[in-house]
Amino acid sequence: MGETVGYDDMVSMIRTAGKHIRANVDKLTELDSATGDGDHGAAMVRSMDLADDAIKAAGGGDLKGLLHDIGWAIMGGAGGATGPLLGCIFMGMSEGTEGKESLDVNDLAELLEAGLAKVRKQTKADVGDKTMIDALVPGVQALRAAADENASIPEALVRAADAAAGGAQSTVSLIARFGRAKNLGARGIGTKDPGATSIALLFRGFSEAQNDAGDETAAE
Amino acid sequence: MGETVGYDDMVSMIRTAGKHIRANVDKLTELDSATGDGDHGAAMVRSMDLADDAIKAAGGGDLKGLLHDIGWAIMGGAGGATGPLLGCIFMGMSEGTEGKESLDVNDLAELLEAGLAKVRKQTKADVGDKTMIDALVPGVQALRAAADENASIPEALVRAADAAAGGAQSTVSLIARFGRAKNLGARGIGTKDPGATSIALLFRGFSEAQNDAGDETAAE
Amino acid sequence: MAMKKFINNPDNLVSELLEGYALAYANKVKLAGDGLVVRAKQKDAGKVGIVTIGGSGHEPALSGFVGQGLLDISVPGEIFAAPGPPHCLKAIKRADRGAGVLFVVLNHEGDVLSANMTMEMVEKDGLNVRMLLTQEDIANAPRSEPENRRGFIGFLPVYKIAGAAAEAGRSLDDVYDVASRYATNMATLAVAVKTGTVPMNGEDMFSLPDEDMEIGLGQHGEAGTGQMELKTADETADIMMGMLLKDLDVKAGEKLLGICNGLGGTTLMEQFIVYRRMHQICEEKGIELARGPVGEYITVQEPAGIQMHIGRLDDELIELWDAPCSSPFFSM
Amino acid sequence: MAMKKFINNPDNLVSELLEGYALAYANKVKLAGDGLVVRAKQKDAGKVGIVTIGGSGHEPALSGFVGQGLLDISVPGEIFAAPGPPHCLKAIKRADRGAGVLFVVLNHEGDVLSANMTMEMVEKDGLNVRMLLTQEDIANAPRSEPENRRGFIGFLPVYKIAGAAAEAGRSLDDVYDVASRYATNMATLAVAVKTGTVPMNGEDMFSLPDEDMEIGLGQHGEAGTGQMELKTADETADIMMGMLLKDLDVKAGEKLLGICNGLGGTTLMEQFIVYRRMHQICEEKGIELARGPVGEYITVQEPAGIQMHIGRLDDELIELWDAPCSSPFFSM
Ligand SMILES: Nc1ncnc2c1ncn2[C@@H]1O[C@H](COP(=O)(O)OP(=O)(O)O)[C@@H](O)[C@H]1O
Ligand SMILES: Nc1ncnc2c1ncn2[C@@H]1O[C@H](COP(=O)(O)OP(=O)(O)O)[C@@H](O)[C@H]1O
Ligand SMILES: [Mg+2]
Ligand SMILES: [Mg+2]
Ligand SMILES: [Mg+2]
Ligand SMILES: [Mg+2]
User: In this predicted complex, what is the ipTM?
Assistant: First the structure.
């Protein structure tokens, strides 16, 4: 690890992300109970379980194929808004590999940009609408900025994770304009968006896997 | 009045009975609410309204026809158990006139015996089962006994009304074996049967019409 | 709490609901004078007519099943109350297309009183009518005392079988015989967990402790015999099917029709889940649950609960059950 | 209070309810792998297939309408949750009998996300599919913003019209056009008076003051716009029909289809009473409420309430609506 991300590195990033999701499932459930239907924590854990299954089934070597399989599995199995949206991010990431098996920091930024682009085709939600987009966009933008400055992959991912966390935090004061929380209107102010919280956890996991700190888990 | 009951006397007996029913409708509703579905008071008032309508429609003269029409109207319009049972009593009374237009005390007893016989064909309930039979049987029996002793009609009807009232009162301590109240089992003990209460009120009305005391109403 | 029902004047419940029903299903049913619900298109002459009676407030029962292959005429009473004999007599006369009439009556006292009086008139008038009383609720009395068993959802297969036989042009005695063969080989049991509301006055129909359910209730929530702690769907089905199979003395190798009928407040989701277990139980015992609709056929003002029904089938009854039929609330 | 539902493990609700449903209606539907609900007997080759998707917990919707003249395949999701694109794609491939597939989707975000992703795959695979989004709830947005109008009971006439056209052997474009003509000429509005219970955790879906009702709620009780004091059936219909007729700009002389759909806890009696008034209102305005079923087609775990629906009819649509069809929960 360090200068490039290969197949095994990506597996470790996804697994570490899963650890962070699992450690925060109750928090995610609580947030979705406050503004939605309470199933987001379960949907995220299911997503990470499906990712683990896909990793096991894949065997190794084909990064594009792995990310596609994870995305397709999450789409089919996670349910709710999480399934298609998170699945979409992975499918987009798959397309963004362009067949490369080893990614430098610029490739990694392209990969996540492709994930973001794909999910943007599915939803009109933009920054400020109190959805997972509020964490995804700053996370991806920070990664792109770091890549443009030729930062190391671990450093780029730390900056991305921080930006995503900030984006998630920014949703607290927003009114939801997409998803179930929309029906709550202004009553949702004061609660962090669960989807954005999950995205921040994923970035945190990616970053920690590349920074040798995979045993600690972030608390959101 | 006195030695015989003619068409007009019967009309006045029925109308006075109606007055007693109407004066006690709340009580009847309350009793049926405690042990059944609470509609007995309304069903009895409707019955007496239907009887009034039939009287108006009949015009006069044909006692057998009048009692038949009243019975048929009550059957069709009163609803619940009251409709067929009370309707049946009047239909039986119609058959019991044998075409006579003027009834002596013996004829009157036969008339009500025929009403009782007809209703007995419809229900297996007997004395002690906590139904209207508990008032009807002693009422008819007292009338028969008075007729056998050649009592005057007013006196015979007083004895019948007293016996019917006693019969209704006896239901307080009984367990219902027919009708909705059956489902209550022993929990119904302590409440007077609404149907028996109504029969007692009818007898009281008959008696008062023949005793020139038609303005007072019995309280049950 | 106010009564949370969409109604107008409680005195007009029945006339208004019948009017709405006939308007919504004008292609299949219409109202005849005296509140009878009849088919939009009368049955062919020469075929046996099928007439039933019963109180309102149990929609879609019973008028929801007027239609080809099922009922010719339903005589609805007021809410929870039997219609009077004069109406019943008119319905029977109207349904008689020259081959006589099967008069199906659910065993509830008011209905039976009215029906018996009707039959007296029928005989006086020399009409060709046979009355079939459905008596199937196993909660109140043993099989040897049918007069104390209430009539529940079993009316539906009875109408269906009689209706198919009538439509096939069979004689009144024949129609009576097949319908009665099913009727004497069926068993039903109800369970409830929450009460409904009497629409005339907004009162609860019955009450149950928060953690309890009750097996064996009557059609209007009349107290049952088995109040117990809430159970899962599977446990509830185990208890009830055990009682039903025992009552009907069903043996391995036999074929049954099974119905899970919702009383109003229980979702179809739950009814399906319960039916699944009914099927499993039969399979475990080598019994074939060969046919079975699930749904709300007879309700009673939104209590949460179900009626669980089984009935013995043979080849002829299966054929009659499978015959096409078309009414607003049951079609094949 | 304990959750008074007949269920087992909340994790297995969907698999158990589908199993029970397929067992009870084995003559009409069966389960294919991946939880698809398909017809017992496949549609003839060369005819357009009709596929729909949607969360569970709304029974009989949507799987209750798989059958001849209606749907070919329904893809049920978990409780209140859309199924994933892989399942949708499988369903579409299976339903394609050589003439393409109409993919009907109710406008709810999860479903739309899943459907859009499915359509991306469909295009990649070069399949012949047209997607029709139903957008009819007038509570949230004006007619000019269909993307913000939710899909309610209007799915039923859309399935019916599309299904009849498909059964008649018409092309995919034709089927799309007639179904879409109805879909863009319909309007629905919901009202509730009491909440239901989320089956996974026993919680109330929403809450309403004891004396109040609320107009304009979403499919899962998402807050509406018109909380007001309880009204009679007629008053409620007056308010809601006024809004619907205005939204759809219905003129005297036009013909409508009308549906009064119960959400679970409201009796059929009440639905009939409301429908009666819907009919009266139209009559007063010289509008013909020409067709209309009343019943529970889409529920949502026993809240008391209804969805009131109208849609504009023309001669061709009436003919398609009247064509025979046969599914477990809707037949003509
Ligand atoms: N249209 C949308 N665009 C972007 N994100 C969305 C959208 N709808 C929902 N989300 C995200 O999904 C999260 C909820 O996920 P989840 O609970 O799995 O979905 P559901 O609401 O179907 O139960 C929200 O917190 C929000 O971040
Ligand atoms: N089978 C029966 N035989 C005799 N009397 C009966 C029978 N069933 C009911 N009753 C009488 O009818 C009364 C109830 O009448 P009503 O309230 O009109 O009937 P329902 O129970 O149908 O509402 C009872 O109090 C009882 O006296
Ligand atoms: Mg959620
Ligand atoms: Mg959800
Ligand atoms: Mg009563
Ligand atoms: Mg009554």
Answer: 0.88
